[in-house]
Amino acid sequence: PVIGVNVGYLGFLTEFRQDEMIAAIEMLIDGAYSIHNRTQLEASVAGRNGPRHFRALNDVVIEKGTYPRIPTFVISLDGQMLSAYRADGIIIATSTGSTAYSMSAGGPIIAPKSNVFVITPICPHMLTVRPVVVSDDKLIEVSVDAPDGNFPLNCDGHLRKLLSPQEIVTVRKSSESINLVANEKRNYFEILRTKLLWGREHNFGQ
Predict the structure, then answer these.
(1) CATH classification number, 40-173, choose in 3.40.630.30, 2.60.200.30, 3.40.50.10860, 2.60.120.10
(2) The pTM is what?
(3) Quick one: CA torsion of 152, 114, 11, 18, rounded to 10 degrees?
């Protein structure tokens, strides 16, 4: 299992503060802890020597990069056309990643243990486009419809490949998950309120 200690700014996934680190380690040694099992994504791209596979805990992002115009991102689910988005990019996020880049792009917050993924367009050039929540047993395929260009494929913020137009990225639920040590003193919605200020009223200085 992985134990997260916040030594930075937000630390949404880190269950423990620095001043709780010693107590957390003692809890681990005593075996007095519980586990949050988090789903991962697997992104696959065809290669000369076979497919290349990349894992992500939060999200898989395909974006326009330095392409000067608005490309079209074509998405299918289990071989059936979902939609074609004219946008700056597409985010495919787990419930864990729903509070990261996807949320910033207007995606919904999804509670842990929800067996779903969210597909969120980045700056879509269409008023009717909304994020879509799909079952995590779906096979998601994404390609970029553009005459030229190189399009970054990022997994948890790390560049994995520059995609060519029409090159297909297949995203599915990974067979490997991550076990995070839980802090029983806090629940998920308390963390939302304290770290993301979820539901807090804004007085704007009044």
Answers:
(1) 2.60.200.30
(2) 0.84
(3) -140
